[in-house]
TrEMBL record:
PANTHER family: OXIDOREDUCTASE, SHORT-CHAIN DEHYDROGENASE/REDUCTASE FAMILY (AFU_ORTHOLOGUE AFUA_5G02870), SHORT-CHAIN DEHYDROGENASE_REDUCTASE FAMILY PROTEIN. Homotetramer. This is SDR family oxidoreductase. It comes from Psychrobacillus soli. Keywords: Oxidoreductase. Belongs to the short-chain dehydrogenases/reductases (SDR) family.
Length: 243
């Protein structure tokens, strides 16, 4: 069997970084996308090249807010078996204080440009016996969060797209799924104060916050042949916080 190539959009983020490591450990060659944090993703690539010398690792820069960057990103991809959207940003702000630019950037980064990119690269996925598309969605895309209305709406749109596109490409043996994390202990949640964290922890039946490894484990499973018959699903990784 030849090399398997995956594109990780957002490889420089905490969740993206862990997904890259787990995929590499499972034999994947990777396109490592970043927007601005070249130093971090370059360090990751050097580590992976040292640990997995028979696999290939390539850096790709693209601003997910710019349509022209998406065109450039698509043209940089050759063989492709899987694409994982692990990028994005949250927005903790009341709707009355949210600008149209805030909303536009959320939807461009999380929904509009990922859809545009998939329109450009699905033909590459179709060439293989099995391929996969995976979004790192959010618990807030399902149940919504106060003071994160715009972010929740963008994540809900991601989830809706997953369900629709799964039907569109199922005949081509391409699976489309999302992993919806609950509270993952990352810098994205650093705005949550200690008192609020304690209250959230009391609501999570598992009694612990999730880790980036928990998310990566689910993503890697969905890229595997064991998940060939799973498509259009939102896999909740939340310790029972939302069921």
């Amino acid at each position: 069997m030849g090399k398997k190539f995956a594109l990780i959009v957002g490889a420089s983020g905490e969740i993206g970084n862990t997904i890259c490591r787990e995929l590499a450990d499972n034999g994947w060659s990777l396109y490592l996308h970043y927007s601005s944090n070249k130093a971090r993703v370059s360090s990751l690539m050097n580590e992976l090249e040292h640990s997995y010398p028979t696999q290939e690792f390539m850096l790709i820069q693209a601003d997910m807010r710019e349509a022209s960057s998406i065109e450039k990103l698509a043209n940089s991809i050759f063989s492709l078996h899987s694409i994982i959207f692990a990028h994005g940003h949250s927005l903790y702000k009341g709707l009355e204080d949210t600008t149209v630019e805030d909303i536009r950037h959320l939807f461009q980064v999380h929904v509009e440009h990922p859809m545009f990119l998939l329109g450009k690269v699905t033909s590459k996925l179709r060439k293989h016996l099995h391929s996969s598309i995976i979004f790192v969605g959010s618990i807030w895309g399902e149940t919504g969060a106060s003071y994160e209305a715009a972010y929740s709406a963008a994540k809900g749109a991601q989830h809706a797209f997953v369900k629709a596109y799964a039907k569109e490409v199922a005949h081509a043996r391409i699976t489309v799924n999302a992993v919806a994390p609950g509270f993952i202990d990352t810098k994205m949640n650093i705005h949550v104060e200690d008192e609020a964290r304690t209250l959230i922890l009391e609501e999570i039946p598992a009694g612990v916050f999730g880790t980036t490894q928990d998310v990566a484990n689910a993503v890697v499973f969905l890229t595997s042949e064991k998940a060939n018959y799973i498509t259009g699903q939102i896999i909740r990784v939340n310790g029972g916080w939302y069921i």
